[in-house]
Amino acid sequence: MKSPLAPGIRFVTSFSRDSWYRGYTLFLTFLFYTAYHLSRKPISIVKSELHRNCSSVNRPADLNITNNATWCDWAPFDQDNYQTLFGVLDNSFLVAYAVGMFFSGIFGERLPLRYYLSFGMVMSGLFTCLFGLGFYLKIHSLGYYAAIQVMNGLMQTTGWPAVVACVGNWFGKGKRGLIMGVWNSHTSVGNILGSLIAGVFVSSEWGMSFIVPGLIITCTGILCFFFLVEKPEHVNCTSPQHYSEKEGDETESVTNNSSHVDGTAYGSITADPAEVVVEHTEAISFSGALRIPGVVEFSLCLLFAKLVSYTFLYWLPLYISNVAHFDAKEAGDMSTLFDVGGIVGGIMAGLVSDYTGGRATTCCVMLLTAAPMLYLYNYIGQRSIGTTVGMLLLCGGLVNGPYALITTAVSADLGTHESLRGNSRALSTVTAIIDGTGSIGAAVGPLLAGVISPTGWNNVFYMLITADLLACLFLSRLVYKEAHGWCRRIPRPRGYKEI
Predict the structure, then answer these.
(1) DSSP label at 423?
(2) How far is it, in rounded angstroms, from Cα 434 to Cα 106?
(3) Nearest 10 degrees: Cα torsion 275, 280, 284, 285
(4) Which value, to the nearest 10 degrees, does the dihedral of the CA atoms of residues 183, 411, 356, 294 take?
(5) How far is residue 386's CA from residue 370's CA, in Å, rounded to a whole number?
(6) What number of other Cβ atoms are within 10 A of residue 231's Cβ?
(7) For residue 257, what pLDDT is reported?
(8) Cα torsion for 433, 339, 391, 401, to the nearest 10°?
(9) Residues near 447 by Cβ (< 8 Å), separated by ≥ 6?
(10) How far apart are CA 475 and CA 368, in angstroms?
(11) How many whole angstroms from its chain centre is CA 423?
(12) CA distance 96 to 111
């Protein structure tokens, strides 16, 4: 008697070769950008160790000190202006990242993505390790740490445009919001892992909080060089369909096709040979990318949305340490809940926007809801452990949901917009413009937090709430257009049509 095929083999063979390669690419790019964010996180964890409340620290008996208040701090962060100095470190990285991002997309369109990503990860790992070596080499120069942050910021710009372009090469519009919402959890997973890894060493040898993540991203860079497949055609797989047929009653969302497409040419099955579209080989210009409908609005929205997200990324552990009086490791561990909420928020934003077809409306609703939640977190978030956990999860989802949606599905939609049909080399440039503009906000947010926090944490939260509302303002025209499109929908007739 012939035995049936094993269930595991039946499962494996139920997927096509294309599906396996898509899943493989999704996993690899997820791993790569997890490593990018993992290597960014240690600075926020180590801040509370570089400047501590030394009066509560047990002083070694053989230590000769001259200042009881700062003997355990790491110079030059042992001064009263330590928050400003932390702001200098943050902005050395973030300004370099913001400026470099605009050029990174241009390079990403013209260089092989595999080489570009591999180089960026290895170099980013090098500079992350050099920051940690400052502990062992007893380096107390602000200029040294700031210079390392600048170089690391430039190297980190290689990541986002390249991984989004790679995923965009493999996936069509279909359920892009949900797929990229799940995939974009790499940001939060990287932040969580970075916090946990840095927290293991922060109280003993904070240099290892940088060196270990630096070695991890270096290893992923080597992995990228040997295993990344940039495009389906490189392995004889089918390229995805980026453009969908637009019916007369479908919404005129700016992130979908902006004009009606003839159904006989796209999406229909006919006996005639399909029309061949000649692909342009030249990359899109910077000004050409700006002319794509929706790019400017979503870029400006992301500027303020990312301002809020990155302020939490760099200052939340210190805020928890100061307000709730946790030590450095406990504050770092607690801050990971914000990123856990961000994972759920990103997935929900993608799912809802796929179902409704309203990317801008989904972002706007979440940003409007986030504003009062931030106010509540500041006033009641530290009353109990349960309240802290709940508010961090909620705020993380509402803050990071729109940020995740814009940097993934929206960027991919706009980078494969109908007006670019025939040009497959625009995705990286569009992604870089959107994320580069957002990175300006990412640089400004932590800087403002460093300047405002000495006047009280309440003022920092007022700044974050204002930024959320401004992000909504820049989406107002797109939200109106999406709502107008929904109102114009004509109900489909029920029952059978007469033949």
Answers:
(1) B
(2) 13
(3) -130
(4) 170
(5) 19
(6) 15
(7) 40
(8) 40
(9) 87, 90, 91, 94
(10) 11
(11) 25
(12) 21
Structure tokens at 351: 């799912």
Q: What is the token pair recorded at 480?
A: 């109106």
SS (H, E, C) 194-241: HHHHHHHHCCCCCCHHHHHHHHHHHHHHHHHHHHCCCCHHHHCCCCCC
As given in the structure block, the two tokens for residue 94 are 């973030």
Contact 184, 407 (CB under 8 A): yes
Average pLDDT per 10 consecutive residues for the chain, totaling 499 residues:
76 84 93 94 87 68 61 82 85 89 80 92 97 94 95 93 84 69 86 90 90 97 95 86 47 40 35 41 68 87 92 84 78 86 90 87 94 90 83 92 86 66 63 85 86 88 94 91 79 44
Q: Residue 219 has which token pair?
A: 């290893």
Bridge partners (DSSP) listed for residue 423 = 280
Residue indicated by tokens 């605009």: 102
pLDDT of residue 203: 82
Output the pLDDT for position 137: 94
Indicate the SS3 state at residue 280: strand
Query: C-alpha angle 237/241/245, rounded to 5°?
Result: 155
